[in-house]
Structures are given as structure tokens and as C-alpha cells.
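Changelog-linked ticket: alpha-D-glucopyranose example.
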Amino acid sequence: MSELSVFKWWQRGVVYQVYPWSFMDSNGDGIGDLQGIRARLEYFTWLGIDAIWISPIFPSPMADFGYDISDYCNIDARFGTLADFDALLADAHRLGLKLILDYVPNHTSDRHPWFLAARSSRDDAYRDYYIWHDPAPDGGPPNNWLSEFGGSAWEWEPATGQYYYHAYLRQQPDLNYRNPRVRDALLQVLEFWLERGVDGFRIDTIHHLIKDDQFRDNPPNPDWREGMPPHRRVLRSYTTDRPEVHAAIADMRAVVDQYPDRVLIGEAWLPFDRLMAYYGSDLSGLHLPFNFQLINARWEAAVIAAIAREYEASLPPGAWPNWVLGNHDRSRIASRVGNAAARLAAVLLLTSRGTPTLYYGDELGMRDVAIAPERVRDPWEKNVPGLGLGRDPERTPMQWSPATNAGFTRGSPWLPLADDYERTNVEVEQDDPNSILSLYRALLALRRREPALAVGDYRALELGPDIYAFERRHGDARFTVVLNFARESRPVSTTGRVVLSSAVARELPSSMTPSSPLLPHEGVILSHA
Ligand code: GLC
């Protein structure tokens, strides 16, 4: 398959997100760790994954569960040591797996030595590493910028008589990326991990990196309604997606490009018309600006078809698409759309044109777990309670087996396990050909076997109401993917040999003839070879 070699691994492959707190605990402290991930690496090869992205594992006070970093170039003791990391990376590579790290250049922890120095005095050499501002004339915050996690984004520092800016928690002061010393220090972080051999980075909240240098007030959001997160009262016009961000990304890309075959993925919650700029002019930016539209979308065929149409139409020439179904910040797919539709979602994710990112446990049909008030860990839920913003429900321990604590830990897990873990787990589902895990594995195997499904061309088809259908083609191979979003059967006028169905009861191989019905929530892949 030599013509496939023009495609990079991150174009052909599938990325799996590991949330390290919850993946596998090797030492019984109730928190996942690197040795735990290492012990489970063969799960990824069994499943058919190409790359794992691990959310932050660096030293951190864990105010935001690792997204508040106090040392960019080390491993938090909860997760292990640098030696553990090297061993994990070596084993992953031996198994043919790529490893992607999280990179958080927007902010540090307030315990980072840079911030400790910066807050000590206005004259400190590190003062300018962060964003300080005098109070407004009334002594209040300098402007109306809001924290994503509730309240003003400005925190008063009495010792030095200024405010500092934090887009997230006050324990996460934003770095001043306009300062070339900050930029250089953060580029060195990339080099540190690249030298160790990592295969790429997922850049955290990249659209926040640069803020308006005139500190203009954000305009009110005309669409804000009671019940929406409070920070959405204003539009983030002057705090996100500033034009200077693209030069900053190009600098990161230039560092990454000094190493062969690495990937740069970025988190930017933006509509397609803004997101496309993150590929950079002449594709000098991110390889994969995350496409989160499926996470927000209403689960209807017409809505999903429109998203795919708009996405395909907006991609710059040569830009590679990608799709995300879930992550550690949003309700799980099985909870958003239901168990039956989650199977359809698996077909959608793994046959759409572009690199899929799969969130740990979604392949088992894991659902959001209700968290009792006394067990809440997420600072967002603590700061802004009652709106359902908390992210603990989608961060609960991976369900490995029917054993105590689902085989995740021999201690007591940091978050509760789902009630259904004795049924919904790797061990039980591996033996069940009708499980969603078996469906994921079959889809991943088919995708690997059939380049058309991974890197092939895409063409949308109109096959009737409630149906989203498209063709994938590569060389002589041609497949049709037909997805029934309705809760009822739907006749579909198409033909082909059914090579995969998401429906539990369908007998394979079978053929579709004009007007064969698709079962409720069924997705099929038809071959026309
Ligand atoms: C990103 C992360 C989220 C974190 C935030 C602040 O959105 O995905 O988990 O809280 O950035 O770092």
C-alpha cells in the first residue's frame, strides 16, 4: 500500500485520550498513574488505537487537576517519575503506539516559581511573565473580563497593589505571551519533551493565548440567558482569538518541525469560520485544530450533515480534518444521546473524513456518573454550582473488569465508579460480540484494513429524512456509510454489501437492496467492491 505512505500517521490513525487521574492506578492511592497506563498499553493495540494523548501529568497543586502546572519539565509524584515516563514512552513505541502530551502555555499554577517571583515585587525580573494591571479609578478590576470558572478574571494582589489576569481559576495566572522571554521559555518546554521522544502535543486553550493589549472591555453577549455559564455574559472578543495568536502558533510549529513526524493539535472552542485560521497561513500552524462540533451538536441527521458540509467547505486546501466525540470537559456521548445512539456515534466518528479522537471509556459505553455534593472535585462545579457545569461525571475511573472498583484501583478511587461497572467493563465486553467495545474494535479494524475509510475522499449523499449518508472512496475501493438517526426503522434506497452494522441483531454478511430498512439508530457500512 505504498500510495498510503503519503499520509502521516496522524492522518491515518486514531487518537485515544487518556485522563491520567482515572485510567489505571498501579500503587493503590486511588489515582491513576504512569505505571498503570504502561500496564494497560496492550489494551490499545488490542483495540486498534494508533496514538494516546495523555492529559497533564506534570507537577501541579491540582487546583484544576493538572491544568495548573508548577513545573513544565517533570512528572507529578502522584503519577510517577521521569523514569516512569521514559519507560512508558519506550514501551509505547515498542508496541507501535504514538504518545502525545498536553501542553499548557496559556497559564501556570500560582505555585510556579515564575509566579512566586512575579508576585513578590513589581520590580522582579519575572513580573512581566504575567499580566498585571492597575485598578480602575474606583479601585475595582481594570475591566469587565470574566473568568471561565466564575467571577472576575482579575485577582487583586494587595502586596504589590495590582491585579493579575486569570482566564480560569485565580490559581491559574495567565502568562504574558507577548513577552519574548515567556515565549522562549515555553518553546524550550516543547524541546524538552521532543528530545525525550514524544510524538506531539495537544495545546490547551490556545485561543486564549493572547489578550488585547489595550485591555478593552468585552461587549455584552446579546444571547446570554439565565442558566448559561456566567462568563458567557460577555463575548470574549478581546480575550480570545486575537490575531497575534497565529504567529505564536507558528513559532511552536517551527520547533516541532525540527523533529520528524510530530503532530501539533490544538484546543480552540471556535466556530468553523474562526477555527480554520488555526491551520495557519500556508498550513504553518496546527496540524489539527480540534473540531468539537459533534460535542455541541443536536443529535439529528440534518444537523450532523450540515456540520460535515460546512466543515468540508471551510477547510483550507491541504488542511486535514478531525472529529472529536467527547473529552474530559463535556458530558459523555452515551449520556448525551443514549446507549443505542452511542453505537451509531461510534460509526460516525470512525468513518467520517478526518482523524478521530476517542475519549477513554466511551468505547465501553461509559456514562456520566452522578456525583454527590460531598464528592465534587471539579473547581468549576464548586465555583459555579447548580448549573450542571461540573466535569467530574465524565472523569470517573475506567471500568476494566467486574472486580472491586472495576479493577481500576485496590485503594479507594478518587471519584466514584459508575453503578453499572459490573456489566460495562473491558473484561465483560471483550467476550461479548454484541458489546459496544466489540463494535469499536470491529470499526477500528475495518478502518485499518480499508484505507478508503481512513483517508479516502468524502462525498455526502441524500438518502432520505433522518438519514445521514456519505461515500468514502480510495483507489478502486468504494464504501457507503448510512446512519439512521431515528428511533424507528427507516427505509433507505441504496444497495451494497453490508460489511459492518452497529445493530446488535443484524446478520452479516447481508445485502441491502433498494428500500431495505435500517433498524432504529442503525449505522451500516456498505461495500461496493
Ligand atoms: C482546557 C482544559 C480544561 C481546563 C482548561 C484550563 O479547556 O481542557 O480541562 O480546565 O483548559 O486549563
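Closing comment: Example verified and attached. The first strand starts at residue 15 and ends at 18. Residues 64, 67, 104, 168, 204-205, 267, 328-329 surround alpha-D-glucopyranose (CB under 6 Å).
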